[in-house]
Specification:
- It contains 23 helices and two strands.
- It is an all-alpha fold.
- The chain has a two-stranded antiparallel ribbon.
Length: 556
């Protein structure tokens, strides 16, 4: 029996809990059940030796449901923490749909990181899409419904590409093992495209800032933790050292920043910042050295916590003030002091200030990068400081206070735990470093990384103040979904205008053809003159006349 339980992926603990959740009464019993699930899931693999478990054959395919190694163990821990904090934050809810969706979503993401083959990965990959969209639709309203549909189409499309890629790879190699791949065939390029969509690569990530701000207050916290970090895990597992990821990651780190600075909706701004942070991780995966991979996955671990903290704090503001627009908020530190303190810690972690988890994990990637890539990433860090610290700080620590109540106790407790984890990792980085996949010694608190990060943050602060003084701070910019819809409608209008002359020509040709056929029918139809029968003598006369005319024309 023990071997049977060991062979099951921790994902099934979440899925089983989601099935029995409706049977548990609301109140303390349900709260205890919800919080016990991620703890039990982590306990199920925490002390297990590394190896492959749950190996089965299905339709002639060898599948591995549960692979435990250093990389999957770390992401399993991160997802357990994220699920616990998200469920704690939403403990005041009495919405069984959101609670069950959160459990299924967390379970699917956990199952995906423990998948030892591409088929198992695909199944859980699609399960994350189908369960997470419920957290968007749960908000209600037409905007959330449409955003959820767009999100679902994109996520399912990613799964379709993954399935096509694994099918081609199986045909080429006869193997479905989820291991490191090289971009030498259409199969691996297709799999990379599937991962790229979920990781919100440039031109492919518009769904992130479109959907996350339209989810529920608690749903955004859960969404921020799992989907994109699952993609980061998949890239680290499948394409470490893939050079093309370095310029892609740099572009990801830089391009979303103007959108984050200009967004009036603070949750949308945070979604763009999330996209930028993913770029730092993608760069580390592209570099592919042990230090860089440690930086990428360590950053993903820390980001799950401090990004969740930021979404928690903004969700508390939305629940209390009824709005999350920068233009409608101010002075929140006076009405929500706890939330203001927590979001400051999250913002400083986002900006990778020393003594925070963001600093001790990002600096690993910086140290592994070339000088040019370092300079570009430090430039991105300056932009992150502007959007995370200066923009958010203006709402909380300046302006006229708005009427808003402090967040409920469970929300504050979840934010407090997240803040403690972010500061704890920053103050004692060895707590996280010893869990990273590679045993690579590193000292983050040396002069160069500390000085460079302080210079980047200081530059961001000065640029923000100068732009604010001149009135040049960015305004709302159209995002990729809007640009795609605008391009579609504009393209349709151009195509319609281009085909109008052809339509007129087709109508003229039809009228001409109809007229010709009508006249021909009148002449040669059953009642036409050409259809009348003539006497033989008349025919002979016409022959003689025609011959005579021919002779005259010939000899004259």
């Amino acid at each position: 029996m023990d071997m049977l339980f060991q062979s099951l992926s921790p994902a099934f603990i979440y899925l089983a809990a989601a099935l029995v959740l409706p049977l548990s009464p609301n109140g303390r019993v349900r709260a205890l059940v919800l919080l016990a699930v991620p703890v039990a899931a982590f306990a199920s693999f925490a002390a297990m030796p590394y190896g492959e478990y749950g190996q089965i054959r299905f339709l002639g395919l060898a599948l591995t449901l549960f692979r435990l190694d250093a990389l999957s163990w770390l992401f399993g821990l991160a997802f357990s923490i994220a699920a616990f904090l998200a469920l704690l934050y939403a403990l005041h809810l009495r919405d069984s749909v959101q609670q069950a969706a959160t459990l299924i979503y967390a379970g699917a993401a956990t199952g995906a990181v423990f998948a030892g083959d591409l088929v198992t990965l695909f199944i859980f990959w699609e399960a994350t899409a189908l369960s997470s969209v419920l957290l968007i639709w749960a908000k209600g309203g037409e905007a959330s419904y449409k955003a959820g549909m767009r999100y679902l189409v994109v996520q399912v499309g990613s799964g379709v590409l993954l399935f096509a890629g694994l099918a081609m790879l199986w045909r080429e190699t006869g193997s479905l093992a989820f291991e490191a791949m090289t971009l030498e065939s259409l199969a691996t390029w297709t799999i990379l495209a599937a991962f790229a969509i979920k990781a919100a690569f440039p031109l492919l990530g518009g769904w992130l800032a479109d959907a996350y701000p339209r989810s529920t207050v608690t749903g955004a916290v859960t969404l921020a933790a799992f989907t994109t970090k699952l993609a980061i895990y998949a890239l680290a597992r499948g394409f470490p050292g893939c050079d093309i990821l370095i310029p892609v990651g740099v572009a990801m780190a830089l391009l979303p920043l103007p959108y984050a600075l200009g967004a009036d909706d603070l949750r949308k701004s945070l979604a763009y910042l999330l996209n930028s942070q993913l770029g730092f991780m993608v760069v580390g995966i592209g570099i592919g050295t042990p230090l860089a991979i440690n930086g990428a996955v360590g950053h993903a671990f820390a980001h799950i916590i401090y990004d969740g903290l930021m979404f928690m704090a903004l969700g508390a503001v939305l629940a209390g003030a009824g709005t999350i627009k920068e233009s409608e908020l101010g002075g929140l530190c006076k009405t929500m002091p706890w939330t203001a303190g927590f979001i400051l810690i999250g913002a400083l972690s986002f900006a990778a200030l020393p003594l925070t988890s963001g600093f001790v994990t990002k600096s690993l990637t910086f140290s592994a990068a070339t000088p040019l890539v370092q300079d570009l990433l430090y430039a991105a860090s300056a932009g992150v400081f502007m959007a995370a610290v200066m923009k958010t700080g203006r709402v909380f620590f300046t302006g006229t206070p708005v009427i808003s109540a402090e967040a409920p106790l469970a929300m504050r407790f979840a934010m407090g735990l997240s803040a403690l984890l972010s500061l704890g990792i920053g103050l004692v980085p060895g707590l996280l470093y010893r869990l990273l996949p590679f045993d690579t010694p590193y000292q983050p608190y040396s002069l160069h990384p500390v000085l460079m990060q302080l210079l980047a943050s200081g530059a961001g602060c000065l640029i923000w103040l100068a732009l604010a003084k001149l009135g040049w701070l960015p305004h709302e910019l159209p995002g990729m979904p809007w640009l795609c819809r605008k391009a579609g409608t504009t393209g349709a209008a151009i195509a319609d205008a281009a085909k109008r002359p052809w339509a007129r020509f087709a109508r003229w040709r039809k009228r001409l053809l109809d007229t010709g056929l009508s006249r021909t029918f009148r002449m040669a139809g059953p009642d036409g003159p050409l259809a009348r029968t003539l006497p033989v003598g008349s025919m002979a006369l016409w022959v003689v006349v025609l011959l005579g005319v021919t002779l005259l024309l010939t000899y004259l």
